[in-house]
Amino acid sequence: MPFSSLSDPVDLARAQGALEAAWNEVRDSIPDAFDERERVRLAYIVAALVAVAEDEDELRDRAIERYRQSKAA
C-alpha cells in the first residue's frame, strides 16, 4: 500500500488529494490496460514526495514531473 507509511492524517489527506489531481492530469496518456499499474506507480511517487512538498499543489506538480521523467527514461 503506497500510503501505509504515512501516519499523519494531514499528510495522508494531502497525498490522497495530490494523487487524484495528478492522476486526472496523466490518465489520458495511459492505455486502459495499464491504468491500475500506473496509478499505483504514481501513488508511490506521491508518497515518496510528501515530506518535501509544501502543499498539495506542489506535491501534485512534483509527482507529475517525476512520473513523466520516469516514463521517458
Summarize the structure.
With 73 residues, the chain is mainly alpha-helical. The chain is 68% helix and 0% strand.
Outline the fold blueprint:
Blueprint: H1 9-26, H2 35-49, H3 56-72
What can you see in these coordinates?
With 73 residues, the protein is mainly α. The model has no long low-confidence stretch (mean pLDDT 95). The protein is globular. Helix 1 (9-26) crosses helix 2. The protein has helices at residues 9-26, 35-49, 56-72. Helix content is 68%, strand content 0%. The chain contains three helices and no strands. It has one domain.
The fraction of residues assigned to DSSP E strands is under 5%
Q: Structural class of the secondary structure composition?
A: mainly alpha
Order of helices and strands, N to C? HHH
Q: For the report, how would you describe the main beta sheet?
A: none
Distance between the termini: 25 Å
Low-confidence stretches: none
Radius of gyration: 12 Å
By DSSP, the count of extended strands is: 0
Query: What level of helicity do the residues show?
Result: 55-70%
> What is the overall shape?
globular
Mean pLDDT: 95
Q: Total helix count?
A: 3
Return the domain count. Answer: 1
